[in-house]
Amino acid sequence: MDDEMAQRHNKLMVWNARQRAVVARFAERSTAERMLAATICSPVRTRSRPRQPSTAPAVLQGGGLDADTRTWDDEEERRARIDLVAEMDAAAAGPLQADPSPEIKRELFKAAPPPHRPAIGPARPDAFRDDGDDTILDDIDDDDAVRPIGAPSELLASRTSMEGPTPLPPKLRQALTELDQIVIHVLMCGAIRFLCVKWLLMQEDNFKMPNRQALEEIERSGASPSPLLSPQEAAALVERGDRSIGALTYGWLSPGDPDPDGSRIRVLRRALMGMAIRTEALFWDFGSLYQAPRTPEQSASFQLALEGGAMNQLYASILATTVLQIEEIPPRPAEFDGVVCLFKLSANVDEDKVRAALVGFGTIKSYDLKRTPAIVRFASHASAVAAKKVGDAAKDAGMSAWPGLFEGLDTLYNETPYFSRGW
């Protein structure tokens, strides 16, 4: 698939999730403060860089900018990454960035369109019980998965006007800051690590995101800058409250590897280069949380990250984070055609038993039952889809289509639409 097609199929909307319930927490405060908390918003705008024209329109959808509808050639993208890393170095060494001109303020602080969908409520009390309901294939049960909560609009830490931002009332800002303490606690425990955006932009064009265990190996090797922020650096960014932390929401494309062909990281890096709000750190579950297989200590850290509401607050924080949403699912690479994965394969199951259970859907070319999860390759993708439909129907009925053999089956490349993934 060429780069132009990758851009069209991987539009990235930049928006900040807002939890409407946050406003209700200020019910005891003045009506003016509660109205302010409900109305301060602004869409993200991209940096003004010359780009090649594209036939795809740059459209706003509910306050989020399709940040990747223009074509970038390789050399321009490389220069843009170098420029942005240099800007980050200058910002770290010098004073805070200069106040934007009135013309830029008028562009940056326009009111966002009204929300186009209602907020999603909190997870149910038993959300962290593992019932095997993992259609997102991220090793987090669907009921546990952090959901983008609220309208897709940009919330700023200040009220905005044509003259620029006005600080929030101190009591309101303090209350919003207190909501982020749960995130700071989990960061200081090391259960969640933020990726360093500067390091991310310095990587080669064919870079693929490693998991957290691999990133910590790079960190221990003495890489400079480190791919991960220290707990202290991460907590300081949250406390700074300027929304310079990106929180990525997307659907995994394959178990064990959310971005098998690197299409997501390409779109993400281009968006990071184009954002008006400078993003210094990133929460990406694959690199921020320990991935399977985990040691007992890593499993305990993983559970700590999920429990207590810290993950929800990462996406709902008004002051600390900007949510980056990748909604589109890239086309299936050819190497995934006809491949299904088998979840929780029973210990006594061999190839003969798997063949007897699945051969009715079509010719089977190969097996790999030692892999986790085990995989079976059909001669046609239609056979894989037919097996998936039977498994899904049984799951919806609360049972397994292959009891005693394996608990579930799915295509290895997960083409489920973003908004059908149990958010």
Q: How would you explain this protein's 3D organization?
A:
By secondary structure, the chain is of the alpha+beta class. The chain has 16 helices and 13 strands. The strands form 3 sheets. A 7-stranded mixed sheet has the order 2-3-1-9-7-8-6, sandwiched between helices. A 4-stranded antiparallel sheet has the order 11-12-10-13, with helices on one face. A hairpin with a 2-residue loop joins strand 2 and strand 3 (64-66). The radius of gyration is 23 Å and the shape is globular. The two termini are 29 Å apart.
Lay out the secondary structure:
Layout: H1 3-9, E1 12-14, H2 20-24, H3 31-39, E2 60-61, E3 64-66, H4 74-93, H5 102-108, E4 158-159, E5 166-167, H6 170-179, H7 181-189, E6 195-196, H8 197-201, H9 212-220, H10 231-240, E7 245-249, H11 263-274, E8 281-283, H12 285-288, H13 296-306, H14 310-316, E9 321-326, E10 339-343, H15 351-358, E11 364-368, E12 374-378, H16 381-396, E13 408-411
Parallel strand pairs: 7-8, 7-9
Antiparallel strand pairs: 1-3, 1-9, 2-3, 4-5, 6-8, 10-12, 10-13, 11-12
